[in-house]
């Protein structure tokens, strides 16, 4: 059985939205003791508060918080007999801590030197990384388990698997293939970030070809080329990868909810939480 602590660490690493539910205090007969926890995501439940109606109502409330898409804390009291129809007859106070994240998926086209260097950085960021190259032998043998590799005959074939706001990084072994990927992204009116590796000369040539193909200047300018944060410098694969990874971080951070609007406990709830924690501490002494 997966423990809530392991699932919490994985959610925080990948940026998956989740609610941590904790038993803060109890009175009378209840399924679990104070300190018990479970973790709730949109489609999974990890660990347990003892089952029964208490856990079902806690799960339902946690999913409601997730559907609202806000980072909040809520303190809820559950009278087991009166409200939930359980024979235990006690009361349980639960703390719900909801962490909502924007889910980011990135498609990396090209398993060359920069692609290899970049994958080492991106695998530790809160991204769902899809790595695409039509040459299977180019992928490292020790590829991280959470990196999804694709090697279709035509890399443009994976566009039907993307979400409209996924991020794209294009850096294949072929300028012609890079162009076809850019053209496919604009043809499908892809709304996510599109970054293309290359020089200023390559950028000018691609913009000219894309405008000649009928795309508007605004559409063409959605492709960032050269992609990366200016001022870092260096031409080694890892130096280029660091610059590109920094730009990726800038982009996905700009999409995150405003942390300043985190809705914590009210003063009344905080006072109640402190009181119950103190009572629980005295009961265990």
TrEMBL record:
Pfam families: XdhC_C (PF13478), XdhC_CoxI (PF02625). It comes from the Bacteria. Residues 12-72 form the XdhC- CoxI domain. Residues 106-247 form the XdhC Rossmann domain. This is Xanthine dehydrogenase accessory protein XdhC. The lineage of its organism: Bacteria, Pseudomonadati, Pseudomonadota, Gammaproteobacteria, Oceanospirillales. The gene is xdhC.
């Amino acid at each position: 059985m997966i423990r809530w602590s392991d699932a919490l660490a994985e959610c925080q690493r990948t940026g998956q939205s989740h609610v941590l539910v904790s038993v803060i205090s109890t009175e009378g007969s209840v399924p679990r003791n104070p300190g018990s926890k479970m973790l709730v995501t949109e489609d999974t439940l990890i660990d347990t508060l003892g089952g029964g109606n208490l856990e079902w109502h806690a799960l339902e409330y946690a999913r409601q918080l997730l559907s609202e898409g806000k980072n909040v804390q809520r303190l809820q009291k559950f009278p087991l007999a009166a409200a939930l129809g359980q024979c235990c007859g006690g009361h349980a106070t639960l703390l719900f801590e909801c962490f909502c994240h924007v889910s980011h998926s990135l498609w990396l086209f090209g398993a060359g030197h920069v692609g290899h260097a970049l994958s080492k950085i991106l695998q530790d960021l809160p991204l769902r990384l899809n790595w695409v190259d039509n040459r299977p032998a180019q992928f490292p043998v020790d590829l991280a388990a959470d990196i999804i590799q694709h090697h279709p005959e035509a890399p443009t074939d994976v566009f039907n698997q993307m979400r409209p706001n996924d991020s794209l990084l294009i850096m294949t072994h072929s300028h012609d293939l890079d162009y076809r990927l850019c053209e496919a992204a604009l043809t499908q009116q892809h709304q996510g970030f599109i970054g293309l590796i290359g020089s200023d000369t390559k950028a000018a040539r691609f913009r000219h070809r894309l405008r000649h193909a009928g795309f508007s200047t605004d559409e063409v300018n959605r492709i960032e080329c050269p992609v990366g944060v200016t001022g870092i410098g260096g031409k080694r694969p890892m130096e280029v990868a660091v610059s590109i990874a920094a730009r990726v971080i800038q982009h996905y951070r700009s999409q995150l909810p405003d942390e300043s609007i985190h809705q914590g406990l009210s003063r009344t709830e905080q006072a109640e939480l402190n009181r119950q924690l103190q009572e629980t501490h005295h009961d265990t002494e």
